[in-house]
Protein 1
Amino acid sequence: MSGVEHAPARATPRPDLMQRLAAERLRREQAQLLRRVRTCMPQQGAWVLIEGQLQRDFSSNDYLGLARDPALVAALTRAAHASGVGAGAAHLLGGHRDEHAQLEAALAEWTGRERALLFSTGYMANLGVLAGLLEAGDLCVQDKLNHASLIDGARLSGATLRRYRHADVESAARQLASLPQAAALLATDGVFSMDGDVAPLAQLASLCADTGALMLVDDAHGLGVFGADGAGSLAEAGLGQTQVPLLMGTLGKALGCFGAFVAGPAMLIEALVQGARSFIYTTAMPPALASATLTALGIARNDHERRARLHARIAQFRDGARTLNFPVLESHSAIQPILLGNAQAALTASSRLAQRGFHVPAVRPPTVPAGQARLRVTLSAAHCEADVAALLDALAAVAR
Ligand SMILES: *Cc1c(COP(=O)(O)O)cnc(C)c1O
């Protein structure tokens, strides 16, 4: 006996996690791809205070300017006084309140679908709908530029994931044909979150009808923005529940609140209640928030003047950008990217705009494909004509 205790020898040398993370961080830093959380304090109008600097905000997804609307604040406060803050439990275990039920009914009615189900976030809704409906052996076909949560949901489901070229219906058809015996679901963003363009929804819907695939549209950026009553890209394209059974919408963007929903035929929504783990195993959203969201829905649906203001700002920005010869993409949504190519160019442009008092984030890989780094300008009904004119002036100055 030596008197020294030795740790038992490891059968295999284990890689050191801390070392790997440090190397990964260094790699990101050197490639100008390090992400950083900054504290942003929204101010009256479309202004934001970032690290002590007051800037005009062109980064928000609050497209209708509802997040700070007094009617929403009043609804939230009133409901919180009546029913408190937390729901206290999951929907299936006592957390489902009258506020949730009312909001679900209103969302179904607005989007022209039989039934709607609330989720805590859009990310969780996409995980829930894909992993809840699909299983190993099934086929999930998705646009290359779909939101990360749709990709992750397909992976979680165990289904075979095949991605098609962006907005390319023939490429989608080839992917569907590649596994003709499998039950299939095709998922697409309605409005693409980094490019701002709208998916070829009608053609994809006929493809799905022809090939027996179920269609899911994630309309996070279309809801409130498109459609006569703001019901989104599907309403704009005249596609109802028969053509596109599953619609996912978020409540944290144009509605200015937080959370998400999936709407569709009662039979599919019931399947989510039974099988969507991100619905079942999580606390219901605060009921007061559901109440504020119901107020937001009323405004988003009926305040046509507000939506018209957003579209006027979009048109103003596009006209100005074209005049200045900026590489803007073909987008009529509130998302107006300016393609700059490499990450450094996008970062430099973003920080020069910040120096002039404009918050326009740079979006870099892996959020967008390599070589497609960009400025992502988002417009809102909260912007006035002078805000957009000032941004165009600043962009022109930065380009020189
Ligand atoms: C924002 C977004 C989501 C996620 O929604 P959250 O409620 O923010 O989690 C999902 N899909 C798309 C296309 C989005 O832009």
Protein 2
Amino acid sequence: MGKIFNMFLYIFISSFALSYAQSCNNYTFSTNQIYATCVSLPVLNSHLHWNYHSNGTVDVAFRHTGSTASQWVAWALNVNGSGMIGAQAIVAVTSPSGAVRVYTSAVNNYGTGLEESSLSFGVPRMIAERVNGDLVVYASLVLPNGRTRFNHVWQVGPVNNGVLSMHSMSPDNRNSVGEVDFITGQMRAGGRSGDVSRQRRRNAHGVLNVVSWGVLMPIGAMSARYLKAFNVANPAWFYIHAATQTSAYIVGVSGWATGLKLGSESSGIKHNAHRNIGIILFALGTLQVFALLLRPKPDHKYRFYWNIYHRSIGYCVIILSIVNMYRGLDILDPEKKWKNAYTGIIISLGVITLLCEALKWFIVLKRKKEEKRTHAGTNGSIGDNGYGQSV
Ligand SMILES: *[C@@H]1O[C@H](CO)[C@@H](O)[C@H](O)[C@H]1NC(C)=O
Ligand SMILES: *[C@@H]1O[C@H](CO)[C@@H](O)[C@H](O)[C@H]1NC(C)=O
Ligand SMILES: *[C@@H]1O[C@H](CO)[C@@H](O)[C@H](O)[C@H]1NC(C)=O
Ligand SMILES: *[C@@H]1O[C@H](CO)[C@@H](O)[C@H](O)[C@H]1NC(C)=O
């Protein structure tokens, strides 16, 4: 089913690419340069022409039609990621004198002013001109790592008093991303299908992990710590705790697996740290689940040590999980909407924990007092129910 769908998608995209190609391959450049391949990009009146050489270089001409002197134009390869962050851009700006300045800018944040900086690959030649309302950027690129297929992104924005301002957020300006293969000439029409399915997988990864590691596991730990103390559910607290953590673990492992798949498609310091913490978490989480099977009987002399071990690993997992949720949400959603929502959840859990903690101490102290007064402390009070010392 999926295969058939992919095949149709492929045919659809290829015919798109072909029809685009036909409408731009008769353009005559002022230099009379002939390019073997050309593709009209789906948004922002842009066309990409190129010749690929077997030594791994490509000569491109990026053409923005209907361009005005008060606009900047950029075209970029995103070598390791997709979209704006990581884009290795070639930028063209028309100066007041009418000359076109062209330079490179590696984009690493959303607040960029497209300042000049060097790219992660070589650009031995770069010129730009303005012809009949078209802005044309010519550049030769030394493609990195012998690769020929890249995500690319192109953009047009306003220039105010010589300052490059942020592009608008219209659908066209947001959809100006795609994938280009310099050998086959194949384009994803805007790369949308790839980006959409990848974004869907990223979201799934985020939701699964936030629900499991980020929310259920802390709740599972709270159920162990407080239900037991309140004596409301004894020994049911144990089954509630075990069931919560086991389901969190199962959901968490599927979230973790989607993350590994995503991680194999991206790199960078942020991604690597997030992945490494994820792997540590998986190892500790697995240890916790299997430790249950090795749990000594309540009166066993090692039970005390097992309890210490189980709790310290448990708290480590929770702290690391929360840290990694934030790292992941930073990567997933630079606009911080998810992050703010998660912060809300964590604050609520924190407040509930504080209240429970206060109540727990109140109950414990009260019980101790009663025991002292009657000299008849019941042997079945907290901490003596076979599930370990509390507090
Ligand atoms: C290129 O071909 C298209 C149709 O294939 C035509 O509409 C367009 O006018 C041609 N452009 C030039 C510059 O010849
Ligand atoms: C690659 O080949 C092209 C075309 O033959 C040539 O113009 C260019 O200088 C070569 N680049 C390198 C780095 O060898
Ligand atoms: C892309 O990743 C490779 C390998 O990790 C690295 O060498 C290169 O600098 C990265 N490029 C960018 C633009 O981040
Ligand atoms: C608690 O139990 C022990 C034996 O299990 C018994 O000797 C002791 O008297 C009990 N204490 C109270 C306060 O009931």
Protein 3
Amino acid sequence: MFSIRSFVIAALAAGVLASPVAERATCTVNSVDSAKNLSSCTDVVIEAFTVPSGQTVSIAAKAGATITMKGSVSFAKTTSAGPLLTIDTDNVKFAGNGYSFKGNGDLYWDGKGTNGGTTKPHPFLKFKGYGTFDNFIVKNSPAQAISIGTTGGAATFSKVLVDNKDGDASSLGHNTDGFDCSADDVTITNSKVYNQDDCLALNKGKNMKFTNNYCSGGHGISIGSIATDHSVSGVTISGNTVVDSMYGMRIKVQQSASNAAVSDVTYSGNTISGIDKYGFLVSQSYSEDFGTPGTKSKISGINFTGSQTTIAVNDKSVRVGVDCGNCSGTWDFSKLKVTGGKDSKIVKGGATISGGTY
Ligand SMILES: *[C@@H]1O[C@H](CO)[C@@H](O)[C@H](O)[C@H]1NC(C)=O
Ligand SMILES: *[C@@H]1O[C@H](CO)[C@@H](O)[C@H](O)[C@H]1NC(C)=O
Ligand SMILES: *[C@@H]1O[C@H](CO)[C@@H](O)[C@H](O)[C@H]1NC(C)=O
């Protein structure tokens, strides 16, 4: 028989009337609504769900939280602006367990990327906060896949797969950058990118490591494009493999950029093949590959040291392009070997380049 008294006792026993700010240990995200307030969650479990059109998800858990995927998240075709998913948690331990974020890019792709045609949400995923991000898949991002804007501490991304291979069909995938990074103290390692634009685009930041990754089908490993007032310094690019791409590796500074700088970039032990335009390109005339270089931003300290970097380019590709208007210092290219294609074009713009075979 119903009794108010027994209801109250049961409710108290269940903690319903207890402190309203009790810390929730494990929180389950299996819908857009369930992700809305995770500020007290130390342990977030993501289960499979679909994000409906017109909605986006932000996962902001308590600092130090663990976020664990136990299913894939699919995004319906949407007119929402990107990012469609933001992870914004300090000192997070994000474990993807091989599950996917499915962007359904094939529903948008028209060969025009973010330059026209169907409006494509971009970036697809945005990372803020900092911590470790391990073992997840991005499948078919509408345009740019992963934007790294971490702050507050070091961030390490490992075993990430960006799989936009489907965008190769009829050249419909475009501007599908793997990692776009504007942040300090970031490491990206043991990851794979199959796409149609930059594998990595490092736009600004210091102390960056890109190691032991695999890039296929895109525009290679890029620093830049560097815009006015932006600087990149202290970069290690080592042990990577780039295949079947427009460029192997590039440093691109916008022709009009002023007060910008790229300094202290070390390349070591990269293996690159099947390149169509330039094996390695340093350009201060971007968006041209090789034009009239700008002079209001500077590039210094570009070295190929440690283990040999080998680049094999296709017949029509230039082996190395250096198009400098304002470059300086001695660049040690002794561990660079480039074969095939057409002769290198070198305009040093103030730098001294020593060693290497190209
Ligand atoms: C989020 O949840 C916490 C307790 O878990 C609460 O204190 C806070 O007011 C909530 N914030 C919002 C915006 O609902
Ligand atoms: C090179 O760029 C730096 C940084 O923007 C600037 O201070 C310097 O004047 C430039 N040098 C030349 C020769 O234009
Ligand atoms: C690059 O090589 C030059 C010439 O050996 C050297 O002076 C410079 O310190 C090196 N830069 C880095 C970042 O290792």
Protein 4
Amino acid sequence: MGSGTSSAMFLCFLHFFWIIVNPARAYSMKHCISIKMNLNCRQRNLQTIPSDIPPVIKSLDVSMNNISKIKKSDFKNISVINCMNLSSNTISNVEDGAFLHLVALHGLDLGHNKLTTISEHMFQGLANMTRLQLHNNLISFIACSSFQNLSGLQIVNLTNNKLHHLSNVQPLVHLPNLRELYISNNNLHYFESRELSNGSIGLKVLDVSTNPLERFSITANVLPNLQNLNLSYCGQNGSMEWDVADTVFLSKISTLDLSGVQMSVDNMSMVLQNFTNTHSSLASLALSNLWRKSTEKVGIIANIACHIPTLSVLRLGNDCISVVSEKLLQSCSRTKKLDLSDNIISDLSESSFRSLKGLKYIRLDNNSLSSVPNATRNLSTLKILDLSLNSIDNLNCLDFANLTGLLKLFLYSNKIQKLDSCVFQDLKSLKMLSLGGNSILTLNGAFTNCLQNLESLDLRQNKLSSIKQEDFKQLKSLKSLILFDNQISHMDNGAFDGLFNLETLKLSSNKINAKAVKDTVFRELSHLRYLSISSNRIEYEHDSELRLPPFVNLSSLRYLAIFSQNPQGMFNIPSNFLEGLQSLETIRAGNLNIKLLHPNTFRYTPELKYLDISDNKFTSLTAELFHPIPKLMVIYLSKCQLESLDFLINANLFQVNYLQISYNQLTALNETLLNSLPSLTYMDMRNNSFSCNCSNLWFMRWITNNSQTQVVDAHQYLCKYPFSQKGTLLLDFDTHSCSVDTGLFYFISTTSLVLLTLLGSLIYRLLRWQLIYSYHLFLAYLYDNKQKNRRAAYQYDAFVSYNTHDEPWVLRDLLPELEVRQGWRLCLHHRDFQPGKPIMENITDAIYGSHKTICVISRHYLESEWCSREIQVASFRLFDEQKDVLILVFLEEIPDQQLSPYHRMRRLLKKRTYLSWPRAGEHTGVFWQKLQLALETRNSSDEENPLLTGVERL
Ligand SMILES: *[C@@H]1O[C@H](CO)[C@@H](O)[C@H](O)[C@H]1NC(C)=O
Ligand SMILES: *[C@@H]1O[C@H](CO)[C@@H](O)[C@H](O)[C@H]1NC(C)=O
Ligand SMILES: *[C@@H]1O[C@H](CO)[C@@H](O)[C@H](O)[C@H]1NC(C)=O
Ligand SMILES: *[C@@H]1O[C@H](CO)[C@@H](O)[C@H](O)[C@H]1NC(C)=O
Ligand SMILES: *[C@@H]1O[C@H](CO)[C@@H](O)[C@H](O)[C@H]1NC(C)=O
């Protein structure tokens, strides 16, 4: 019954670990993990109860922390909670009313703390509580009214405290529903029924064990319904006094543990004789560890015990027996279960159990037997025989003779080396055979002609090296075959043939290589649901298709484990390795040294829900890999050296709710990725290379603000980048530094304005000419564009662009020579521009209406006119029409460095031809000739330009 309670408690907290499949809605909390409304804050170095506990949860586990005080305000926001585990802290103080609002609480564990007293109002409000664990504290005082309103309380564990008097538990005993009370290992010297005053009607289980009781005295019927009494290891100095006034007082007791009680043989005999009367209900009696190694005394006691008419279970364990003779148990004819485990029995006479006519269950485990005793043969009523943990090295054909009714046989952890075909021949009903932990080398047909009803065969941890076709063939009922941790390297074709009902096959930790994993081995296992072949030597050189994929006939398989625990691994998974596994839901393929997965890998497993490929060497995976498995819910990808999860974006993983990606090199996750996992509720990203900067602002905010996905332990994540943030906490990153406030904005804009102005004037000073020039260039571009659309016929042969300073030369030298002597028609602005027309239009008309444009270049010209509209329009036309329109005439020598601001000029000079007006005193004839030639040239490209030759450079 005790174990029932603890298992209920265990189940209650088991919720916490139920994280593998389908974790539901979760919350983001600083210290806890929440799964399915169960909050786990275990081992977090907490000093206080976390303040961000959501109001509605099923359970809370804050065990293994450093909490020393429970404050009244700690749980005031929690309205609905069933279980609470506060154990293994240092709680010494619980404020009155701390649990006041927890009306739905059923289980509270305060074990392993430092409580010394239970005060009056400590448990106020816990009206619905049924289980209370207070074990391993320092409690010596319990206030009278402290349990007054806890009328629902059924189970209280006060084991390992400092109670000195039985009267301390009086406030508990009176509770109407109390069923189980554990006060083991306190400091009780007396058990006097009067200390319980009126006693307890409901109490069924009472554990008083390991107290230094000098006296066990019941003088009134205070525990009328007590069924289970544990007095083991009570008493001091061999002298516990037993004083039960009336056998009726203990008449309901069915289970009694008197192991290790300090009592003389005589006193013990008297105690047991008190149970031989007609009122007694005693069915199960433990008498272990009474008088070490004194088989004689044990024999006397056993004999009396076996005269108890109702007794069916007898335990005589813990080092007290070495030899069992017929005499020891001669009166135990009614015993159904005999527990002789944990002794040092090496010898059992053939007739030891002869008088136990109805024996169903014998435990002889953990003794010193070197062979299967003769005594256990021919027990036709026997159902369970446990011989495990002995030194049996050999099984003979008659060892299990006539055990035709036996259902379970345990032989694990012995020294059996070989089997024979005859060994199990009589075990016609056997359903379960456990032979693990021996040294069996070969099966020698031990399973060939018997065990038709065997459902479970456990051969783990032996030394089998091969599986032959005949080995298991006749085990038609077999559902589970466990062969892990052997040395199997070879499996015959059809090694498992005939096992049509087999559902579970465990072959991990053997020496099976890729050649041994073949379709012919598994061909008849169409009902197999669970297969593990992890940690073997299955390796593939590449991932190309296998000619004969191994699992094609395993159409019912739900679970496949191929992960490895050795560093070797599979290296590659052939693209059709999983072919045939149409029902597969879980695959565990971690630590296989795999770098790549072929996109077809999961093509054959459309039902896959749970995928573990963690601890591999992927640097990247593809979205295509996941397309055939849309039902995927759980992904394990930790320790995979991943720098990005972008491959999940188009993977269509709409059902995934659990993502384990710890120990990678991820810097952050982006919005697109997380949006592509719409069902995600649980994500573990511990130990990645988080980058704490503003570009991951969205991610950091998402971790804390999103209401769907719980990022496990996010508050412990450390930054790795940038260097300045290394080692700081990701969620401590100051996100405000990323958003600019208005003050800062104004500051920045004024500063920039000032800087720009400064820079602008600086630029203007340095690059004035280039700026003006660029401005005109732009205007010219606009006009040129406009001009393109309306091509006038040529009015002039040339338009002359010049500076007013050079007008004398134009009028005196140029005009007479070109117009009068050579007969060209020139356009001069002072003479030919139409008055009233905008100047720009006049210029463009002139340029586009002339075949050529002559630029008269001097220093003045460069300073004022070069940047003028004329030259720009002309040069645009030049590029636009690809015609040689520009004729450059240099009136004076201009050194290169003075030309430097005029990039365009320099470019033109490099590409174009130009003429220089001869220096004073030189002959002008050649100049005019060349000019004439230039004016005559029409539409010629550079290469053909005759002026290219015979022109001097500046
Ligand atoms: C009571 O506490 C003891 C000591 O920790 C433990 O061993 C035992 O299992 C507990 N019993 C129940 C019913 O919880
Ligand atoms: C708790 O107990 C009260 C009566 O004491 C009952 O009305 C209520 O329904 C119980 N609540 C739960 C959650 O069991
Ligand atoms: C218990 O047994 C002893 C010895 O057999 C006997 O003297 C005593 O009266 C018995 N007690 C009761 C309550 O029957
Ligand atoms: C088992 O019984 C046989 C006779 O049936 C006997 O020869 C043998 O010595 C016995 N073995 C042991 C270990 O008692
Ligand atoms: C098995 O039982 C039969 C009939 O009861 C008996 O003849 C035979 O000797 C027994 N076998 C052994 C090995 O004791």
